Amino acid sequence: MKFFTFGWKRRAIRVWMIATCALLVIAVALSSVLAAVPIASNSLSLLFGGERANIVEDHREELFDRQYEDKDSVLEAAQAFVVDVAEEGFVLLKNLNASLPLAGSPKVTVFGKNSVNLVYGGTGSASNVSANSKTLYDSLEASEISYNTVIKAFYDDNAKSGPGRPANPNMDSGQRLSGFATGET
């Protein structure tokens, strides 16, 4: 006790003891928060390269694929996947058999429910007001390209083709977008 009273009289020791106690309280509080909020601890674990835990949220279980050993192998696999998708999706850019540009009075059929329900932007910073935006079909008409009106009418009729994609939630709604419906027929 004599040491404590002697030490407390010195200003440097008082400052050191108060700062140490304050940091200890902050560390305990932070540990409690990380233990109580799984997404916070999982985010820190991802940031510093730790193990990903399975998260149970809203009675849904999310499972993470652990087929990759490290972040470099995940990046390599992702880049290879992007190349595969591009090779499969860029067929028109190859202009096989000189099919472009479309000659004469071209006629096209646009497939997909989302052709009548376009996404004009994301949510949050990428969202925009789409009331004055042109539709895909407005652009086809402006380019004098005829389209299959029977298929368009099918996609326009929710009773036949389904309700389509739901509206994007606002950023502040708290709704998670994993598993968000695409609304395709």
What does this molecule look like?
The structure is a single chain. With 185 residues, the chain is mainly α. The chain has helices spanning 2-9, 11-36, 38-47, 71-89, 91-94, 136-142, 149-156, 158-161; strands at residues 55-57, 60-62, 107-108, 146-147. A two-stranded antiparallel ribbon has the order 1-2. Strands 3-4 form a two-stranded parallel sheet. The chain starts with a helix and ends in a 24-residue tail after the last helix. The mean pLDDT is 75.
Question: Which class best fits the helix and strand makeup?
Answer: mainly alpha
Largest sheet: 2 strands, antiparallel
| Helix run count | 8
- Rg over CA atoms, rounded to whole Å, is 29 Å
Shape: elongated
Question: What is the spatial order of strands in the main beta sheet?
Answer: 1-2
Mean pLDDT: 75
SSE string? HHHEEHHEHEHH
Percentage of residues in DSSP E strands: 5-15%
**Count of β-strands:** 4
Helix content range: 40-55%
Uncertain segments: none
How far is the N terminus from the C terminus?
Answer: 79 Å
Summarize the structure.
By secondary structure, this protein is mostly helical. It has eight helices and four strands.
Main traits of this protein?
single chain; 185 residues; mainly alpha; two-stranded antiparallel ribbon; two-stranded parallel sheet; 8 helices; 4 strands
